[in-house]
Amino acid sequence: MERLEEFKEWEEPEEQEEPEESEELDTLTLEVCKEYRKRAKAIGDEKNPLQIGKRKELTEELQERYNIPEIWATNILNGQRYPDYLAILKKRRIDAKKNKGKEKEILIPFDEIGL
Predict the structure, then answer these.
(1) 76 near 36, Cβ under 8 Å?
(2) What is the pLDDT of residues 48-87, one digit of tens each?
(3) How far apart, in whole angstroms, are the C-alpha atoms of residue 98 and residue 96?
(4) What is the spatial distance between Cα 89 and Cα 81, in angstroms, rounded to a whole number?
(5) Which residues, 6+ apart, have CB-to-CB distance to 55 below 8 Å?
(6) Which residue in 74, 78, 68, 73 sits closest to 110, CA to CA?
(7) Given 17, 70, 100, 115, which is the most exposed site by the fewest CB atoms within 10 A?
């Protein structure tokens, strides 16, 4: 009988609302890249084992906030290749505006491109 009473008192956890897909992510800019590079330099040497965790957190923050691959985030923190990444993102935005009303094309994900 006690188990039945315990069951009655139990309530299902409330479902958390998922963020809407229409919410736009922040736009990666030259200033943002420079700011993250500055923050990475402030952490210290990238090869220092004591700083690896902090750099990893910074990399993950950059990835999540700007929706970029991990290698991009790592290179931005190291001050490498970010002009290339900014050019790629600019081209994608231009193409997205140009093709807004058209049928969607099949895009090849980064993982499948053999460069």
Answers:
(1) yes
(2) 777 888 999 999 999 999 999 999 999 999 999 999 999 9
(3) 5
(4) 13
(5) 40, 43, 46, 77
(6) 68
(7) 115
